[in-house]
Amino acid sequence: MRGYESNNCRLCEKTFCCENCRVKHETIVHKIFPNCDICVYGQFTFGNLDDHSLKHLEDCHLPLHCVYWKHQ
């Protein structure tokens, strides 16, 4: 079934009628920003971020810490 996976919550795997309902569920129930990799997956890779995503990153996740760089 095409588009089925985009209808599933990425945190609790409930199925919704459409992607918009899934996004609303993730935002309200799980209190995450659905476009944020840190909120959803716990990790982040730099890419093309819009202003809204950058503001969310600044407000909720800074300072970021690199998992590969260790201070000795």
UniProtKB/TrEMBL annotation:
Question: Which superkingdom?
Answer: Eukaryota
Boundaries of each C2H2-type domain copy? 9-30
| InterPro entries noted in UniProt | Znf_C2H2_type
Protein's UniProt name: C2H2-type domain-containing protein
Question: Which organism was this protein described from?
Answer: Rhynchophorus ferrugineus (Red palm weevil)
